Structures are given as C-alpha cells and as structure tokens.
Amino acid sequence: MTTAPLAGRLDGLLFFPVTAFGPDGSLDLDAFRAHVRAGVEAGAAAVFACCGTGEFHALTPEEFRVCVSAAVEEAAGRVPVVAGAGYGTALAVQYARLAEEAGADGLLAMPPYLVVADQAGLLRHYTELAAATSLDVIVYQRDNAILTPETAVALARTDGVIGLKDGLGDLDLMQRIVSAVRSEGLDLLYFNGLPTAELTGAAYRGIGVTLYSSAVFCFAPDLALAFHRALTTGDDATVDLLVDGFYRPLVELRAQGRGYAVSLVKAAVRMEGLDVGGVRPPLSEPAPEHLAELARLIEHGRALLKEAGA
C-alpha cells in the first residue's frame, strides 16, 4: 500500500490481470505473480486485482487475500493496487477488509449479487462498504447496479467514494451523471469499464471520461499502449486503423460466446507464452475456431502497428 492518495495516481492505462490456475484448477500463484509483474513492467498505471477479468466470482476469500497480497508485493509501490469487492454488503465488507489487510490501495465495488435493488438500497450498500475500511472506493456501474444522477451525486458526497466505473455504455446517462455531479461542485473519477473499452474510447472522451480499463493489455500491452498513446495525443489515423482492423473484429469475436470477456482474454494470455490455465466453472473455454481467429487477430493487430509506425 502507498501513502499517496489513490485518485491522484490513477492516470494512464489500467491493468486488470487474469487469475492464474494450475492444471488441477487450483490457484497458481507463481504464474499470477509473473503476469502482474509483466504488466507493471510493461507500463500499467494501476493493477486491478481479482476483479471481473480476474474471476472474482470464482475465488475463495483465502485465494482472494493471497492474490491481492501477491499483486501488492509485485507492484512494490510503483503503481497502486485496487482489489474487487462484491456480493451482498456483509460479504463485500469482508472482502474489503481482506484487501486492506493485504495492502491494497483501493476497492472496485462490484455489483451486489443477484438482487435488483432500488437506489436507496444501492446507496446504503456502497456507503456501508466505504465506511468499512480506510480504502478509497470506485463504484462499478453495470447489470443490476445502475445509478441515477441523483444517486451519483450522493455517492460523490460519501467519504471514501472517489470514482464511478461505467460498464453499462449508456452515454446519455453518463453525461447526465457527470453534469449533475459537476453542477453540485463535486468531483468523481470516471472510468470507461466496457469489456473492450478501446472501441468506445473516443466517445467517452467526448463527455470527459478519459480513464479506461484495457483487457487487451493483459495479453498485448504493445497494442494497448499504442492505442492509448494515439487516443490521448489525438492521433486519429492510428486510432481508426486499430479500431477498424483490430478492436472492432475483437469485439465481434467476443460476442460469439458467453463469458468470452474473460475466457477469450485468458486464452490470449496463454497464446502469448504465459500459462495461466483455464477459466473456472461456470465459465467455459472458447471454441477452437474462435481461438484460431483470436491468434489471427493479434498477429494482424501487430502488423497494423508496424504499418502505422506506432
């Protein structure tokens, strides 16, 4: 854990590592450490451990604790480590405290499990989670946890809540949230949290949302960093080249199977030379023909980088 405020350190490409499992399905901590270490050394601005891409849903509390601790050790203060926390309020608080004990710098508050709550219930959930530890909290909006602008304003007033990650993709709602929070003289960090955020990066930047998580960084940091650099410097030609030739086809491939936002990414990490194992049930491995297409896409993406001189 570092002493600098988390909000001031989240500036760059955000890395959501996969969680590595061995042939018998048990946690492979050595492979996980290698994955995190490689991401930090490649230029990640932060490590979001045991979140969606990291199969938070499939980890036991003890596995979660040791993974977060390992991520903190591998980051070694160079970049902040944010850990997932989810399920109902009591369990989310338990995971939050485990993350704090493991040395994390912050929490990504995953949607509550199963139930569809009203706004008052969501606000109470996140308020209690934020009060449970000293860690700063980023709320993840998606699925059964969709906020109104009024609730977002209330969260912006909540001690410990510093950000909102959007996994819904409703730009009209996000614009209204940003405007409502700003109009009250408050501030939040906003994140584009869609599964392949690069595809919508330009659109989100139009409403002031510049931070995003990159699943592609897990397996091809060269592609992810080149795109991020082009997007932030206004190199529209490179952005368009990579969107048209790599990111859009990748999103279309991802749509071919349930759970591919995780299993396809994990397969790509293996393709790139690090054996992080397969996904745990209830997720399944991608179909062989989709793996072949994934390999082709990665090769083509790198060819596009050479073409662009990026």
UniProtKB/TrEMBL annotation:
<comment type="similarity">
    <text>Belongs to the DapA family.</text>
</comment>
<dbReference type="Pfam" id="PF00701">
    <property type="entry name" value="DHDPS"/>
</dbReference>
<dbReference type="InterPro" id="IPR002220">
    <property type="entry name" value="DapA-like"/>
</dbReference>
<keyword id="KW-0456">Lyase</keyword>
<dbReference type="InterPro" id="IPR017655">
    <property type="entry name" value="Dehydro-deoxyglucarate_dehyd"/>
</dbReference>
<comment type="pathway">
    <text>Carbohydrate acid metabolism; D-glucarate degradation; 2,5-dioxopentanoate from D-glucarate: step 2/2.</text>
</comment>
<protein>
    <recommendedName>
        <fullName>Probable 5-dehydro-4-deoxyglucarate dehydratase</fullName>
        <ecNumber>4.2.1.41</ecNumber>
    </recommendedName>
</protein>
<dbReference type="InterPro" id="IPR013785">
    <property type="entry name" value="Aldolase_TIM"/>
</dbReference>
